[in-house]
Specification:
Layout lengths: L9 H23 L9 H32 L6 E4 L21 E7 L8 H11 E12 L8 H9 L3 H4 L9 H6 L6 E6 L11 E7 L1
Parallel strand pairs: 1-2, 2-3
Antiparallel strand pairs: 3-5, 4-5
Helix pairs in contact: 1-2
């Protein structure tokens, strides 16, 4: 992740501007391809809009996060449950339909996903049940600014008022690190700030490994 000093405060604003630019692009695409059902409700349009935006923006920004993410995911082994982004319409209980039983997963990985799920505490608690003893949870998630009374924390809280509307429900101020640490008993917990993130980063990360 780049460290741009105080210019880091501009990153969320630029992200919102780029997201807005994809509104007419998405609308035109849906009309041209006669996908009218996706513009009948705000929810369906927002998913189509963010999906198109993130398809481009996600790949374009991948190089910024790849080195840190790859280091974490290198620890994956055995039965791996990679929790990714999606429509949000499936539950953890469906894992058993696919033959995955509680206490049988060697590795769970979450990368930029827990910021967006509607019931993070419920999801994290359920996933913990599927992790076997000695299993590893690999984490790379953006979190609430740690310095509670700092300028960056105030800026993050202000931007987060509108941020979820442009990033499909993503919350910048979710305390994901505490949520993970208190989701169950861990024999080892090594979560830390991502390297090279400055004081003015309004999208700081927690990165590391939890061992059950």
């Amino acid at each position: 992740m780049l460290n741009l000093s105080i210019l880091d405060l501009l990153v969320p604003i630029l992200g919102i501007i780029l997201s807005i630019l994809y509104v007419p692009v998405t609308l035109l695409t849906l009309l041209v391809h006669r996908r009218f059902s996706e513009i009948t409700t705000w929810r369906s349009f927002r998913q189509a809009w963010f999906g198109r935006f993130w398809y481009c923006f996600g790949w374009a920004s991948r190089a910024l996060f790849a080195p840190d993410v790859e280091k974490v995911l290198a620890g994956a082994h055995g039965v791996v449950l990679d929790i990714g982004t999606g429509s949000g319409d499936w539950g953890v209980d469906e894992l058993e339909r696919w033959g995955v039983k509680p206490g049988t997963v060697d590795t769970i990985s979450t990368v930029h996903v827990l910021c967006s799920v509607q019931s993070p505490a419920l999801l994290v608690g359920d996933l913990y049940r599927y992790l076997k003893l000695g299993g590893r949870w690999l984490v790379y998630e953006h979190v609430k600014v740690r310095r509670k009374w700092s300028l960056t924390a105030g800026f993050q809280a202000m931007i987060n008022i509108v941020w979820p509307y442009f990033f499909d429900g993503c919350s910048m101020t979710r305390e994901t690190e505490d949520l993970l640490l208190h989701s169950g008993k861990w024999t080892s917990a090594d979560l830390r700030p991502a390297p090279n993130e400055g004081w003015f980063n309004a999208l700081p990360h927690t990165v590391g490994v939890l061992v059950k």
